[in-house]
Amino acid sequence: MATVRNLKIKTSTCKRILKELHSYDKEVEREAGKTADMKEKGADPYDLKQQENVLAESRMMVPDCRKRLEGALEDLKGTLVELEETDEKQGPEFEEARNIIADVEKLFESSEL
């Protein structure tokens, strides 16, 4: 049985994971720049290898985070549909949930190109 409280929780979960995904994307960019800078300056091979490992770890987190976001999005959509079927469609929670769904779907569409 879906409730407005569940909707709020699932909306917050999507928001948090979306924020986390953006954070990982920024981290990958930052670490890639740092790695390129180290290569350009001819850094010690050991240090360079360590930096490449850091970059690889950061890159591994992005697909994992996207997968969790997809799951959270499906949960949120299901809860929203269930609540709409019971004629509960109004309120700021519903608007916020719809906005998050739109934002996440837009992100997925733009990254699949």
UniProtKB/TrEMBL annotation:
GO terms for biological process: post-chaperonin tubulin folding pathway; tubulin complex assembly. It holds the Pfam family TBCA. Keywords: Chaperone, Cytoplasm, Cytoskeleton, Microtubule. It comes from the Eukaryota. InterPro entries: TBCA, TBCA_sf. It is found in: Cytoplasm, Cytoskeleton. Its main location: cytoplasm. The keyword Zinc does not apply. One of its GO terms (cellular component) is microtubule. Belongs to the TBCA family. Supercomplex made of cofactors A to E. Cofactors A and D function by capturing and stabilizing tubulin in a quasi-native conformation. Cofactor E binds to the cofactor D-tubulin complex; interaction with cofactor C then causes the release of tubulin polypeptides that are committed to the native state. This is Tubulin-specific chaperone A. It comes from Solanum stoloniferum. The lineage of its organism: Eukaryota, Viridiplantae, Streptophyta, Embryophyta, Tracheophyta.
